[in-house]
Structure formats: C-alpha cells, structure tokens
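User: quick one, sequence for these tokens?
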C-alpha cells in the first residue's frame, strides 16, 4: 500500500467509494476485487474486503434488520461453510484465472438476462430451492474465499429468483454476507492472511467505505422496485465483466 503512486492511491479511493455506494444501495457489490487487483495483491485485497464487508453489512443491517428474510438466508448459509473451507485450501495453492473467467461469463450472462427481463414480461423461472440454495451457497463460500469477494453476486442471483422486494433483498443479502464474512474472516485469521499490508489497506479504506455506504443509503431510498431490479442487473454485469477481461 505504501508503494502506491498518487494516481494509484486516487484510483484506490475511487474504487472503494464506488464499490460501497453500490453495496449500500443494493446490499451487495462485486467490483472491488476485480478493479483493485490491477494495483494490489489478492493476498492483501481478500482480507481487507472481508473486514470491510463485515462492517458495511453491519451498517446496512443496523437500519434494515427488520426486513431480513431469515428462512431464505438460512437456506444458503450452512453450505457456505463447506465452500469456505475448500476456498481456503485453493487460496494458497491455485492460480484461478481460468475459473475467474468462467464465473465471469456466467454472472455476466445472468445479469444481461435479468436486465433484459426487466424490460419485458417473461415467465418467472421455477427452480427447486432445495437444489439451488445449497449449490449457490457452497459456490459463494468457495468463490468468496478464493477471490476475496464476488460472493454477493451468487446470493443476488438466488434472491432475485425469489422475487423479494427491494428492502427485503438488500437486508437479506447483507445478512447472508455478514455471516459469510465471519466464516471467511475466521479462516483468514487462521492462515495468517491479516498481515501488515492487509491491515494498512483496511485502515486506509475504512473512511472511504463509510462515505460510500452513506451515498448508497440515499440511492436506495430513491429507487422504485423496477429501477432497483435494473440496478442489481447492472451490478451483476459490472461484477462479471472484469473477471472475463482479466
């Protein structure tokens, strides 16, 4: 972090504010890691965004906890644990570029479909939650731990399929990400990922995150349900595109 140039520090600041403005408005975000990976090591970014994710989710839930759909949250949280454990193993051993691009294509495709569907009357997909929830939960735990972020996109897909209202969507995804953050943070502590660079980056990003969450809260309050759905779709597209282009 100390070795960053002035333009890189400005880029870092802009990414943090933008990312957490998105998270404050939707409850999730996936652009932080793909963008910061251009200037920082993934080993620094992953624990940093886990720490910031816990705080930002807590800030969202402080005002929106009454909107949490606990039944839908508990469907995906237990499978996350298995994904986190597997992700921790590959976090220290795997070059995941190919996997990142494949995931980016999937999320980009779903985001494009969701945006297209918001402009047309299309039949709602009927997928068995007993299969969807464990699959997305374990995948989110694995991907979130391996890459340090991007897990929110899977929960967003899951909750989008449930057609939750904008307040329920935002609070439920924040609650799920808070639980996942505890699991990931414990794992990163166990493997010593919170080193000096990660702590410095976290301290520098904290006030920027607070600005972003403040802006996101105001954006969320001004959105009607249709615009919120389109915003979620655009965030999914923005989350997948950097993974494909890496």
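Assistant:
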């Amino acid at each position: 972090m100390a070795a960053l140039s002035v333009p890189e520090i400005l880029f870092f600041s802009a990414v943090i504010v933008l990312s957490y403005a998105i998270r404050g408005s939707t409850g999730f975000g996936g652009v932080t890691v793909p963008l910061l990976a251009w200037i920082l090591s993934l080993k620094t970014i992953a624990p940093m965004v886990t720490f910031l994710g816990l705080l930002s989710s807590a800030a969202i839930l402080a005002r929106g906890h009454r909107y949490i759909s606990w039944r839908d949250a508990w469907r995906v949280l237990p499978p996350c644990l298995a994904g986190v454990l597997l992700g921790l193993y590959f976090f220290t051993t795997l070059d995941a570029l190919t996997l990142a691009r494949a995931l980016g294509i999937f999320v980009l495709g779903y985001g494009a479909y969701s945006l297209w569907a918001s402009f047309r009357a299309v039949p709602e997909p009927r997928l068995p939650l007993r299969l969807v929830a464990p699959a997305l939960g374990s995948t989110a735990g694995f991907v979130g731990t391996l890459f340090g972020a991007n897990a929110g996109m899977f929960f967003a897909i899951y909750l989008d399929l449930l057609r939750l209202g904008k307040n329920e969507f935002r609070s439920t995804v924040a609650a799920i990400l808070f639980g996942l953050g505890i699991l990931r943070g414990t794992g990163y502590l166990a493997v010593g990922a919170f080193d000096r660079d990660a702590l410095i980056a976290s301290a520098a990003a904290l006030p920027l995150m607070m600005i972003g969450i403040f802006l996101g809260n105001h954006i969320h309050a001004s959105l009607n349900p249709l615009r919120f759905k389109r915003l979620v779709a655009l965030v999914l597209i923005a989350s997948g595109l950097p993974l494909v282009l890496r």
